[in-house]
Amino acid sequence: MSQLDISNLSGLRISPSNEDDLEKDPNEKKIKYPKSVFFIIATELSERFSYYGMRAVLTIYMRNMLNFNEDKATTFYHTFLLMCYGLPIVWGIIADSFWGKYTTIWIVSLIFALGNVILTLSSIPPLNLPAIPLTMIGLFLMALGTSGMKPCVAPFGGEQFKLPAQAKYLQQFFSVFFFAVTVGNMISTIITPVFRRDIQCFGIGCYPLAFGVPSVTMLFAVGVFVSGKSLYKINPPAGNMLVKVVRCITHALVNKKYSDQEKSNWLDYADDKFDAGLINDIKMLLRVLVYYIPIPMFFALYEQLGSRWTLMATRMDGRIGNSSFIIKPDQMQVSNAILMFIFIPIFQALVYPLFRKCRLLKRPLQRMGVGGFIAALSFFVAGIIELQIEKNHYIPPSPSETHLKFVNTLPCPVLMTNNLELDNSTLVIGPENAQIVTFVNTNRLGMTLTLNESCDSLASINNRKWVGEVPLMLGSLQAVFIFVKNNTLVASISATKEDFVKSNEGNAKVRIVINGISNNNIPPLEMITLKSLRGDAATYDMNVIKGSNDFSYTSVSELPPGEYSVVNNFLQNISHIGNSGHSSWAEVGNVDVHTGGSYLYVVHPSYGNLSDSFKLQMIVINTPNEIHMLWLIPQYVLMAWAEILFIVSGMEFSFTQAPKSMKSVLQSLWHLMNAFGNVIVILSAQAKHSHSQATEFFEFAGAMLIDIIIFCLLAMRYKYVEGTTGSIKDRNDNKE
């Protein structure tokens, strides 16, 4: 949840010291509550639903559907956020100086809706539209739209109230406004991943629905907002304070360059054109802005919840117990909003009062410092979890390597020797087992296979030795099957590369290889279907391809985790073998696959006394995701604590320490700090200097630690402004 989105609640001037008196104003009851604010709240709820719903699945969409690698997907995701938080300054100037808030809101809402519609259309495969260019156009328009709403919607809602008589109502409006933002975020972050994963459109996850529902919601928001025009109080543009600040600073710098006079402060050179009050307020503004310098690094960590942390979740197991419910990786983002709802009241009611009794964390900068340390800790924890995830990953061959997966289908061990004088020149492959061996810079491998003489199960085998060569494909993983044909030991290499890459969707990858069918008078197969044994009883067809005289195989299919029975479509018979391991071909067996695993299932004849039956042998190419997704909760909890301490306290610091005339300026610059934080992530993703994702997490943790130490050193010198008078406390005990 981005900055709690209370950053939208800027631009209104209410002195906290007067609120109690204002609530007692007798005129408050005589003035009707403005109905117009309900249209504004409904607009914000719909816009936040649309924004967060799209954003929840965006990174995974770019990786899975646009075929971006994770660095590229991360770069475009944070470029989108960069625009979302960098452009509010521009739109604030346009609204305050030219168009006014009402006109700006409905125009940018249309722009946002148009971008959402374009993104949706680009994700519909049958339209055959250029997906990547249209996606970029859609995201650009959406960034323009949402960045225009940030500085306008909440202040426009505040303008509907008559002050001071309705100050209490105004405070209630901000609470409801924040609630609407949070509800829109949570609902959309939960349901759009369901559309993406659990609903099939055009044979794939339904991204058109995941983007389309937010599009319809945004079009609804535009209609709701415009329909309330007759009820709105619309103020004309009155000028933008940020423009005045820039003009004053520019004028001071120019005058100082050409002036012969000596003045105590360089801003005083603008006193010939600007009044002393504005100049003094800018001095105080710049004094506060020094403490904004370390803030971008915090946002560089915080905004990765929707990119690196979401991609991290795709490599984890989301199953809940033995149920069919699976947590989607992009649904983990909602943890932030839920945890904020839980912890904000706890911090306000328990944590802060307890620390105040201990004379700790009394000042905003102190709390920001602690929040920064906790943010660094959250990424350190993320790095530890990522290290555990990476332990389960199969390391693919380099371009100069070939990985051979020797698959022994026999009930006896087999000795493999090759003609290369390497450490792996001799290998014992266990009964009905498989083992990977790496070969470097060779296109053909000469080898000898020898069946163990002491194996009684295959006593009738005449020729127990096989000598031959197999062709190798560099940079690939290939399977070598060891079996018996015509009472002779035989080896045959797979006609295709095995797929070792984990599924981007968190599914399991399955290929079925059939051996020895023609030797047992079984009719040829055209298709094998796997039928889910879950409640949905979904079926997945796998076309059978003839590979050689000895083997046929299916293409690789992605299946949701669970147990499946093998259906021979030619015989129209479903297996009911359970765990016995033997059957006729009509009863091959069940397969049980897990999140992220890659499996090779070999159907081959049984040997010995069961030579007329068949067996289903499972070979794991890539181990399934073994680390559960709920192990992400600790780092999400730490980041929620960091967000409360750093962002909320940072906004309190900005509001209380800035001159009244500069509060909206500081709010715009706060958004800009977020934009700079996204620049840091973009540069990191493009640098590609990290060896692993875990290393990158540790690097961000270290950078945040250094950054917050610098921040704390600066904070120790800060003297707080006294209330709203503008005077500065000089007593040493008021320093951080």
TrEMBL record:
It comes from the Eukaryota. Keywords: Membrane, Peptide transport, Protein transport, Transmembrane, Transmembrane helix, Transport. This is Oligopeptide transporter 1. The keyword Coiled coil does not apply. It holds the Pfam family PTR2. One of its GO terms (molecular function) is transmembrane transporter activity. InterPro entries: MFS_trans_sf, Pest_cryst_cen_dom_sf, POT_fam. Gene3D superfamilies: MFS general substrate transporter like domains. Residues 1-10 have a biased composition (Polar residues). Its main location: membrane. Residues 1-26 are annotated as: Disordered. GO terms for cellular component: membrane. Belongs to the major facilitator superfamily. Proton-dependent oligopeptide transporter (POT/PTR) (TC 2.A.17) family. It is found in: Membrane. It is a multi-pass membrane protein. GO terms for biological process: peptide transport; protein transport.
